[in-house]
Design brief:
There is one protein chain. With 152 residues, the chain is of the alpha+beta class. It has two domains: 93 residues, no CATH class; 48 residues, no CATH class. 55% of the residues lie in helices and 30% in strands. A two-stranded parallel sheet has the order 1-2. Helix 1 crosses helix 3, helix 2 crosses helix 3 and helix 4 runs antiparallel to helix 5. The relative contact order is 0.14.
Amino acid sequence: MESVITLAATTLSVILPFVAKGAEEFIKAAGKDAYENAKALFHYVKEKVSANDEYVSTVANFEKNPQRHATAVEDILKEAFSKDEEFANQVSLRLRTLGPRISVLQEVDKAKDLTGVKVRTVSDGEFEIVQRVRDAENVVGFEADDVRSRSS
């Protein structure tokens, strides 16, 4: 598992836009799946810290003014993750599943230099590439310059 500092910063990077933007704006910017994932993560974190009155107050302030209280939330996340390894592990697992989900289906009769997915860097995520090609030259399903796991 990554350090609590990294985990807290990553968690904040997901929940801050969710809290700061309205649902409609967030969905427009990141998509419905990203919205639902960020929402689920935020509510999970909020529930897990609900036993501590100071944490509850900090999260409530964060919901009212996310930019102003982001640092305080990051601090309580570091503290909570340090005290509760299972909580940290669960959040880490949830974050790993938030990677991009890309699905490509190409049905082509004839092609030359056909690529399903080409990216520079990939940090986790799921890719499904289906290519149904009858007559083709130089077909690539997936190409990436750098593939790395968030946990490394």
